[in-house]
Design a protein that fits this description.
This protein is of the alpha/beta class. The protein has one domain: HUPs (Rossmann fold, 3-Layer(aba) Sandwich). A 6-stranded parallel beta sheet has the order 3-2-1-4-5-6. It is globular, with a radius of gyration of 18 Å.
């Protein structure tokens, strides 16, 4: 077992009342049809649940085309909109726009993306996804392996949940609607 040695000043007492922010909320989406209001709601959710980091993960065109078989705007335009929203939102350093897929410039399997996110960002990891994305994720063979390492937060209740999504109902929940 690894030991972490910390040095503290004489007389230091740990503040048990302070609730430290921890974990990462990853918004995994194309961000083609996501409005500023939806981005504001996910930022509020991250703050309400005390996440240390909100990561916006825009999918590359090739990844989106393979997952949903529909035309998609170029990556740089969607990423530019996210940067503009972050500037307007008044980022306090907790919002990150992950550009790993933009650097790769090709199809990235969801498993590879999640592996990258788990290596880079603090645990526990929560994926904020649409019901369509959750159903697509649940259809993968590796879903059972990944769902044990992270949790899902769905934007809305899925009308027709995949059987694997139903099987692991305890590992996901639906965003509370405060409307």
């Amino acid at each position: 077992m690894d030991r972490i040695i910390q040095r503290v000043p004489y007389g230091y007492t740990e503040d048990k009342d302070a609730s430290p922010r921890k974990g990462t909320l990853v918004y995994y989406d194309t961000f083609q049809d996501v409005s500023e209001e939806q981005l504001n709601r996910v930022a509020e959710l991250a703050k309400a649940r005390s996440f240390a980091k909100l990561v916006l993960y825009p999918l590359h065109e090739e990844t989106a085309k393979r997952m949903w078989k529909r035309p998609i705007e170029p990556y740089y335009k969607r990423e530019e909109r996210l940067f503009e929203w972050r500037r307007e939102h008044g980022d306090d350093g907790t919002i990150t726009i992950e550009n790993w897929e933009g650097k790769r410039k090709k199809y990235t399997p969801m498993e590879a993306a999640i592996r990258h996110l788990i290596e880079v960002y603090a645990q526990p990891m929560f994926l904020y996804v649409s019901p369509a994305t959750a159903n697509a994720f649940a259809s993968f063979h590796s879903f059972e392996e990944w769902i044990s390492k992270l949790r899902l937060i769905l934007t809305e209740p899925p009308p027709d949940a995949h059987p694997n999504l139903t099987k692991f109902r305890h590992r996901w929940d639906v965003r509370e609607t405060a409307e």
